[in-house]
Amino acid sequence: MSSRIDGDKSGQVPSRVRRILRGPQPESVPGLVGTAVMIVGLLDIAAGVFPRFRYSRIHAVAEVLPVFGPFAAALAISAGVLLLLLAHGLKRRKRRAWRAAVVLLPAGAVAQFAYRNSIVGVVIAAALFALLLRHQGEFKALPDPRSRWKALTNFVLMSAGSIGLGLVIVNSHPNRVVGNPGPYEQITHVVYGLFGFEGPVDYAGKVSWTVGYSLGALGMLTALTTIYLALRPEHPAARLTADDEAKLRELLARHGGRDSLGHFALRRDKAVVFSPSGKAAVTYRVVSGVMLASGDPIGDVEAWPGAIERFMEEAKAHSWTPAVMGCSETGGEVWTRETGLDALELGDEAIVDVKDFSLSGRAMRNVRQMVKRIERNGYTTKVRRVSELTEEELEQVRGAAEAWRGTDTERGFSMALGRVGDPGDGDCFIATAHRVEEGDTSPFGDLKAVLHFVPWGTDGMSLELMRRDRAADPGMNELLIVASLEAAPALKIEKVSLNFAMFRSALARGEKIGAGPVLRMWRNLLVFLSRWFQIESLYKFNAKFRPRWEPRFVVFRTTRDLPRIGFAAMQAEGFVTLALPRLFASRRRPKPVRACAHHQVAAVPQQAEREVQAA
Q1: d(C-alpha 427, C-alpha 493), whole Å
Q2: Which of 50, 117, 401, 573 is the S-S candidate for 593 at Cβ 3.0 to 4.6 Å?
Q3: Which of 377, 388, 385 lies closest to 436 in space, CA to CA?
Q4: If residue 265 lies in a helix (H) or strand (E), which one and from where to where?
């Protein structure tokens, strides 16, 4: 304390002032600059659009050079729109966004000064420009995976934004408009202006020049950004190579019994990073800037930290948001310990121990009665390894699984394999239900339902796909799950992982006597959301088999990342899709067969609820 007093008495600069003079911490610069650039972009747009906002003495120059004023307005609008587009990239430390901002900030400052005589705008732009140059080392992130579809997305969004902003520009000079043009004339004027032509709206004085240049600038921006995105080299998302798959299969052969989701690492639309020793790996997919891993790392637990470190380095290199979906408690502990990330319970996995399963007893009465009723109706079941099926049977199963899919979009990522009957998946299991019917015209013969399991080590299997003929009797899923559990001892299977139940503990505790008001309110919200996502019905479906519940977690960096991670996870799982309109959807039918019984409810949803009620 005495040294501090002496320092103050001796005239030294206080530490708080020194921190201000030093400027922001380097790691905080991208976020700060990104937000500031967004504000500057909005100011540039406002300067180019609204007459009162841009009024200045520089208009005297425009009287001598009539093209100067409108050109400055168009430049301000163009720079502002581009800065808005770059703001998010700067926050994510993208190098290309930095390069573009270094060019655009001076251009926007010149335009603001020329059109508004704005000293403040110049100072702000200069300060940001200096920050970008001083901390250019903070902007090293590599490009994201991308494809030509981004060009189409950009064209649609930029066109809509340009039309909206164009209408603001057209209506920002109400005292100079000749006549009283209606909405149709205004929209026509905007569309014509985007293509560089004069529209039906006329203005007094030189305002028509300003509006024309501004609309033309928006149209040019839309065209140039779309052409750039269409012609730039593609950076496709990483895929699992044959060599990577072979290494993962070796790790699964030695350590696959640790995690029931381990086999799903073999999805070929995932990328992989290995530990330096090669004894562990983390598979992931990048969705909307989020680096999503799923399940626990593959391989030796002692080597997990090395694989996790590689994962985090890759996320940092691209400025991706790291996240893990559905890891176990052990996996969550390792992730949080090694990375400083946080974990949140996501739900519970239903696991049935084969030796403890029995249809006898009052608790299994509903399932027992349903299965007996279906068997009396003439249904039979088969449970076999994929390697035991003929190619003709496999084709029949693939075709049926595709035809019986309940949604237009395939669902599944973290707990789905994405294929059936691949030559390398001979150790998977398929359970099928059959019934011979007279006059049956089904292209799949007597096949009525399919369950697909992947291996879980040497003594377990994990449910991956559930499909049924909608014309078949209710209870096909129960019938095949019971048949699989009863056939498990002969297949040397001791444990079976069923569906994943989101927020299972909240649903279970919220309906018990003595539950508090917060817990009851949370449960009521989940029940309400179940109308669309079948959260409660899937939990009830799982609970019928009296499983033990193993918690699963989501790992994340900060709480503010959770909405973004949740949206990316919904995209990866197939609940949110940027699909073509239905007019074209039938021409681009997804390839069979990708489904997930764990984290998708296409196979169970409303049918499971009806079967609960029927039982």
Answers
A1: 12
A2: 401
A3: 377
A4: none
Among candidate residues 223, 210, 215, 222, the one with its CA nearest the CA of residue 191:
215
Instruction: Give the single-character DSSP code of 615.
Output: -
Does the pLDDT of residue 563 top 80, yes or no?
Answer: yes
Q: Taking residues 591-611, what's their average pLDDT?
A: 38
Beta bridge partners, 324, equal 293, 555
In angstroms, rounded to a whole number, what is the distance separating the alpha carbons of residues 48 and 115? 8
DSSP line for 547-584:
-EEEEEEEEES-GGGHHHHHHHHHHHHTSS--PPPHHH
**Could you tell me if 521 and 510 are in contact, meaning their C-beta atoms sit under 8 angstroms apart?**
no
Prior bond to 273 cis, omega within 30?
no
CB 228 within 8 A of CB 252: no
Q: Report the C-alpha gap between 133 and 451 in whole angstroms.
A: 58
What is the helix (H) or strand (E) element at residue 418, kind and residue range? none
Of 267, 292, 262, 264, which is closest to residue 280 (Cα–Cα)? 262
What 64-67 contacts at long range (C-beta under 8 Å, 24+ apart), as own/partner pairs, is 66/206, 66/209, 67/209
The owner of tokens 């006597």 is: 513
What is the model's pTM? 0.70
Higher pLDDT pick, 601 / 33 = 33
C-alpha distances in Å from residue 357, one per residue of 255, 548, 550: 26, 11, 17
582 HSE (CA, 13 A, CB side): 2
